[in-house]
Structures are given as structure tokens and as C-alpha cells.
């Protein structure tokens, strides 16, 4: 459904609620809603049903993909992982962040970006006037790439995924994109940028430039972990995020 139709439904819902309030009521009782809704051809009820059904359908589609990921052993990463790390956030997000792969904390809890880098990403999202629940966060590879895959309990055992590992797992990210249909993707770091754009340019040159992946606008930026090592990178990352905000609000950069 087009955005204009969503806005129309919300507008009608607002009018219906205001009308009910004008009757001196501050609650909507189940047995009273019929009269109110009939004044607007039941649009409020239809709107609620539509949004609930739509989100439920998208969530179920993502859950189906998640189940496939949980059973995946297409590459060696599947043999050493503790948990698959599928992704989290809104199934109808307009903004999607894509990292390279889960680390120690993520592997142990099955959630993306929950370590120190993830906490910094949360602050970046909030600075953009969003919440983590408003966006979608995932990685190209869904299992923890380790230096020593025989020792998943070892700290500082993370590594970047190989190009082959990213190619093997990329189909799952493509499925996520097909369901979520974000307006723009932000790739975090060199590996995820290389994995989606298939180029060897350093992230310092690629960051902040408008790209495209599968018909979706894409802006690369530095990984939050790089900002922890070098706080001077916070300024260019924020410049990149301002471009993202501008595109989400105006459709232009």
C-alpha cells in the first residue's frame, strides 16, 4: 500500500477518535465502537486490522527465514557458532544497518550489536531521533567468524568474514531485504560494504557516498568499533548519518 493511503487511513482514524472525544468520552468501549466507526465507514477498525495483519505477515516471513538460518551449515561458520544472529528491529523499517558479522557477545546471546560497538550504534541511532525498535539491524554473515573456531568461549577471538563466507550467507540478507524493503541501507565498515558492493575501495574513500544495492539506496560508513578505537571518526560518521536523515525525510541527499 502506498504511503499516501497509509496517511489517509491515519487521518480518518484521527478524525474518528476526535469525534468520539467530542461526545465527552475519554475511553473507547468495545460495545460503543460500532456506532463511532460506522460514522467513518469502519475505517478506523479497518486501519487497525490492516496494520496488525500487515506487521504479523512480515514478522512471520522473517521468522520463516530465521528458522532456515538457524539450521544452516552451508559454510564452516555454522560448525563453530553458539547461536545464529539473525537480526532485530522493525519488520517495516525504512532504515537498515548492516554489519559484517556477530562477535563474542552476539554469538552468546543471539542478538546483533549488543557489545560496546552495539551500544555506540544505539547512541548514533538515538542521535538520529530514532530508536533501535524503529530501524532494522543485521549482518551479512549470521554466525560468528572466529580466529580460533575451536574456542568460542575465548574473548578477542573475532575476525572479519571472508569474501567467500559473505557470498555464501548473502542470500539470507537478500531475503530480509525483500521482506523489510528499507528505503536506505547503511553498511557499517569495510567488510559489509565490500560484501554488498563487491569492490575493493577502502572505507575511507567509500563512506558517505550514495550507492545502490538491489534497487535500494545505500550509504557506507565506518563501523562503530572503529569509532571506539579512533574517536576522531565520530564526526565523519555523523556527517554520513545527516545524509541518511535527509534522504529519509526528503528523498534527496
Which short descriptors sum up this protein?
253 residues, alpha/beta, Uracil-DNA Glycosylase, subunit E, 2 domains, six-stranded mixed sheet, 11 helices
> Which value, in Å, is the CA radius of gyration?
21 Å
Give the distance, in angstroms, between the N- and C-terminal Cα atoms.
Answer: 25 Å
Counting copies of identical and different chains, the oligomeric state is single chain
- List the helices and strands in order: HHHHEEHHEHEHHEEHH
CATH superfamily of the largest domain: Uracil-DNA glycosylase-like domain
- Total count of helical runs of at least 4 residues: 11
Q: Helical content, roughly?
A: 40-55%
CATH fold name of the largest domain: Uracil-DNA Glycosylase, subunit E
Q: What CATH architecture of the largest domain do you see?
A: 3-Layer(aba) Sandwich
The outline comes out as globular
Structural summary, described in words:
The protein has helices at 3-22, 33-38, 43-70, 77-80, 104-109, 116-127, 163-180, 190-197, 203-206, 224-229, 234-250, and strands at residues 88-89, 95-99, 136-139, 184-188, 211-213, 216-221. By secondary structure, the chain is of the alpha/beta class. The model is unreliable at 19-40 (pLDDT under 50). The two termini are 25 Å apart. Helices cover 51% and strands 10% of the residues. Helix 1 (3-22) crosses helix 3. The protein has 2 domains: 1-71, no CATH class; 74-250, Uracil-DNA glycosylase-like domain (Uracil-DNA Glycosylase, subunit E, 3-Layer(aba) Sandwich), CATH 3.40.470. A hairpin with a 2-residue loop joins strand 5 and strand 6. A 6-stranded mixed sheet has the order 1-3-2-4-6-5, with helices on both faces. The longest helix is centred in the first third of the chain and has 28 residues, at 43-70.
Amino acid at each position: 500500500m502506498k504511503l499516501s493511503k497509509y496517511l489517509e487511513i491515519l487521518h480518518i482514524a484521527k478524525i474518528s477518535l476526535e469525534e468520539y472525544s467530542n461526545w465527552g468520552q475519554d475511553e473507547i468501549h468495545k460495545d460503543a465502537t460500532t456506532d463511532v466507526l460506522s460514522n467513518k465507514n469502519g475505517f478506523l477498525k479497518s486501519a487497525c486490522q490492516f496494520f496488525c495483519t500487515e506487521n504479523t505477515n512480515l514478522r512471520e516471513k522473517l521468522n520463516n527465514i530465521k528458522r532456515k538460518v538457524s539450521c544452516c551449515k552451508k559454510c564452516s561458520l555454522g560448525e563453530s557458532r553458539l547461536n545464529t544472529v539473525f537480526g532485530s528491529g522493525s519488520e517495516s523499517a525504512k532504515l537498515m544497518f548492516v554489519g559484517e558479522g556477530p562477535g563474542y557477545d552476539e554469538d552468546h546471546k543471539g542478538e546483533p550489536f549488543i557489545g560496546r560497538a552495539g551500544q555506540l550504534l544505539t547512541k548514533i541511532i538515538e542521535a538520529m531521533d530514532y530508536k533501535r525498535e524503529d530501524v532494522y539491524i543485521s549482518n551479512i554473515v549470521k554466525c560468528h567468524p572466529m580466529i580460533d573456531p575451536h574456542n568460542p568461549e575465548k574473548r578477542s577471538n573475532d575476525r572479519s568474514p571472508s569474501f567467500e563466507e559473505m557470498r555464501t550467507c548473502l542470500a539470507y540478507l537478500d531475503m530480509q531485504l525483500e521482506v523489510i524493503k528499507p528505503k536506505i541501507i547503511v553498511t557499517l565498515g569495510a567488510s559489509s560494504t565490500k560484501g554488498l558492493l563487491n569492490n575493493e575501495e577502502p572505507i575511507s574513500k567509500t563512506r558517505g557516498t550514495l550507492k545502490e544495492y538491489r534497487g535500494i539506496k545505500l550509504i557506507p560508513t565506518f563501523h562503530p568499533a572503529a569509532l571506539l578505537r579512533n574517536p576522531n571518526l565520530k564526526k565523519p560518521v555523523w556527517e554520513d548519518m545527516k545524509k541518511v536523515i535527509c534522504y529519509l525525510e526528503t528523498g534527496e541527499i
